[in-house]
Design a protein that fits this description.
Elements: E1 2-6, E2 14-19, E3 26-30, E4 36-37, E5 69-70, H1 73-79, E6 87-88
Antiparallel strand pairs: 1-2, 1-6, 2-3, 2-5, 3-4
The structure holds zinc ion (2 copies).
One zinc ion (ZN) is lined by residues 7, 9-10, 13, 30, 32-33, 35.
Length: 93
């Protein structure tokens, strides 16, 4: 999982880059509290998924189930978000 920082909502979760849809739109998603930002700079108030299925606030698909996935390096390159990466962290999902 490639991440861009630590979540300032919960103070502990890593902010991973998540691809939520087939059309490869990127989100920044906290793996702990599910705070979402639509930009890698994480400015402004976060969004949160719809409940009970944790659906993406933009496209309405479940953010924790395929086709949603943590972005690969190639996908991050295509988003042009590479400059925001702080590192990568092994994650099963
Ligand atoms: Zn968080
Ligand atoms: Zn989405």
């Amino acid at each position: 999982m490639y991440f861009v920082g630590t979540c300032r909502c919960c103070g502990q979760g890593l902010l991973g880059i998540r691809i939520c849809c087939e059309d490869e739109i990127g989100l920044v998603l906290c793996e702990e509290c599910e705070a979402i930002w639509l930009e890698p700079t994480c400015t402004g108030e976060p969004l949160f998924p719809g409940q009970p299925d944790s659906t993406c606030p933009r496209c309405g698909r479940p953010i924790w189930h395929p086709p949603a996935h943590w972005a690969s390096q190639d996908e991050i390159d295509r988003l042009d978000w590479t400059e925001y990466l702080l590192g990568d962290w092994e994650n099963e999902s």
